[in-house]
Amino acid sequence: MNIKDIPRDGFKLNLIKDNAWFMAMLGVRAVEIDSINKELVSNLDMHLEDSGVIDIHGNVRVDINMKCVRCLNLFNYIIDKQFTVMLEPYSNNFQSYHELKKEELDTEFYTNHDFEPENIVFEQVMISLPMYPLCKPDCKGLCSICGTNLNEHQDHVCKKTVEEDNPLRVKLQRLNLIKGAK
Predict the structure, then answer these.
(1) Cβ distance 120 to 99 under 8 Å?
(2) Model-level pTM?
């Protein structure tokens, strides 16, 4: 979008994006996202100030299928948030390294009078994701020996032992390097 397309009294933009768009934006990032349910919906209200700064107030709502990092099961994670972003024209006069002020954390930049509203919405989704996604706070995860889901089998007691199934131990036994070699 070109900033010249934003009228003096502001511009409202409603975005509806599907799973194919979201997964294409996601690419090969190392996050535990499987897909989105339904559609991503976002409403943006943009105002261009005389200084060239674009003030964007918006919201985004999306229901994401995520993989739990403990038990590897899929679960729904809903993002429904309001956000404000300031877009400033990029200038080579900016200091490369300086201590950020709190108001600078919501500031982004555009070049050549162009910016992509979809990228701003996608970024808001990504920063809203948990760093350590869990299906529930007390997820018990998988048995470290056999991989049984401990949420589904709470009385699970593994009959195998770490030593018996440790690939390194088996290999060393075969080479007759440890006791109990066969």
Answers:
(1) no
(2) 0.74
Structure tokens at 62: 């999306």
Read off the tokens for 182.
């066969």
Q: Determine how many CB atoms are found less than 10 A away from the CB of residue 72.
A: 13
Distance CA 52, CA 27 (A): 32
- In a 13 Å sphere around the CA of 155, the CA atoms on its Cβ side amount to 0
Query: What DSSP state is assigned to residue 99?
Result: P
CA distances from 119 to 8, 23, 113, 143 (A): 23, 13, 15, 40
Which among 112, 106, 92 has a CA at the least distance from the CA of 3? 112
Per-residue model confidence as pLDDT tens digits over 74-111: 999 999 999 998 877 776 455 566 565 656 555 666 66
Q: Answer whether 87's CB lies under 8 Å from 108's CB.
A: yes
The residue type of 105 is L
Selection from 67, 42, 54 nearest residue 124 by Cα: 42
